[in-house]
Amino acid sequence: MTGPAGPQVNEPPGQAIQVVPHAAIERAPELSVEAIVERVQKVQEVARQVMQEGHDFGKIPGVEKDVLFKPGAELLALTFRLDPQIAIQERIWHEDGHLTVVCCCTMYHSPTGARLGSGLGVCSTKESKYAWRKGERLCPKCSKPAIRKSNKEPGFYCWAKLDGCGAKFRDNDPSITGQQVGRVPNPDLADCYNTVVKMAAKRAQVAATLIVTCASRIFTQDQEDFVSDEEPEPPPRKPGSGAPVTTPSNISPHLDPDENPGDFNPTQEGDAVYAAAMTKMHKVKDDIMSCGDIDTALLIRAVLGSKAKSSQLTRELQTARETGLLSPDQRKELGSFWQQLNRMLEQKEAALEPGSAADFLGEHGS
DSSP assignment, residue 115? Predict the structure, then answer.
């Protein structure tokens, strides 16, 4: 029954039941200034003493703050005893086969179960690095992407320097001219579905970590939010300059002048090669950051290659360098990014199973 003093409880004989009125339950007080300062300093100390650049966080040219990667977010979660709970809020299937995923990461305090905050992450196959691929002319005879416009006579040829068969084709051959080149829709979108789910979850987790730990003072969101996947525009030409002239200055020293790509614009083709290589390496980076077992790490190593063992990616970069398609800045940036990915993968391999990756690569060449 209820009386003027509040709820009354009939107590069984010999037992005492304590009733705590709702108004008597105190809410947790706000953090003091000292506690806030201590938390910010702890984030800074973890970043300085524990995190490794290129693995837990990284730098982007033109962005003042470092970007926080998923491994770094996991370190902050460990530091503050956070329990990230990730749920897919929405899967949007588009009529053209594209998939958009929205994830929410809710952060709880492990010892108490208190909800501390949340963050959203969205990823879609409509993003440039998933939606598009570089369309190249394939040789009808050997199926290699080595078709070039002849500078010696009208027509096309399959460039032996790119592992082609050397076949020649007429200038109006429909098997060559009918092929779509440049940026083309990705014909294998289904291969990206699992990736976009993982990327949405990762983005949500990083966002929630930054919010809950107040680490946005030091870090910003992950790299894919700032790096454009669009192919760079070629530099503007001077008025009246016309098309580039095929002179010894723009013919690779590794080629016969008659083998030069001719009507192909070296700058545009080099930009396309550069953009395609960067897209592949960003995909490798995403795979490294989400890798959780040594078998997956070994598969990534087979794609990335190493200083001792080549891969398709390293052979493509070597070919682009030897044929003179890349500018010095592009070669330097691709080489630096490749080395960064190697360091990241080496750290992942060592953390998962020290020594096994090296043993595997010693027995199996890529």
Answer: E
Q: Dihedral of the CA atoms 122, 284, 234, 188 (nearest 10)?
A: -70
What is the layout of strands, in order, in the sheet containing 99-109? 82-93, 99-109, 115-124
Tell me, what's the pLDDT at 324?
67
Residue 2, SS3? strand
Q: d(Cα 352, Cα 154) in Å, to the nearest integer?
A: 56
Span 254-270, pLDDT tens digits:
333 333 333 333 345 66
The four Cα atoms 334, 335, 340, 344 give a dihedral, to 10 degrees, of 90
Provide the residue ranges of all domains of the chain, joining segments of one domain with +: 53-134+185-228, 137-180, 254-366
For the domain made up of 53-134+185-228, give the CATH fold.
Enolase-like; domain 1 (3.30.390)
| 174: its two tokens | 């429909």
Q: What is the token pair recorded at 84?
A: 């990230």
Confirm if 102 and 89 have CB atoms less than 8 A apart: yes
Share of the chain above pLDDT 70, in %: 72
- Name which of 43, 70, 69, 45 is nearest 57 in CA terms: 69
Q: How far apart are CA 101 and CA 196, in angstroms?
A: 7
Give per-residue burial for 207-221: e unless 16+ CB within 10 Å, then b: bbbbbbbebeebbbb
> How long a stretch of residues is the chain?
366
Please tell me the predicted confidence (pLDDT) of residue 322: 67
Under-50 pLDDT residues of the chain: 1-9, 11, 17, 19-26, 224-267, 354-366
Residue found under tokens 């070296």: 266
Neighbours of 117 (CB within 10 A): 16
Contact between 341 and 288 under an 8 Å Cβ cutoff? The reply is yes
pLDDT of 107 = 96
CA angle, 314 then 315 then 316, to 5°: 90
Three-class DSSP category at 309: coil
- pLDDT confidence of residue 113: 92
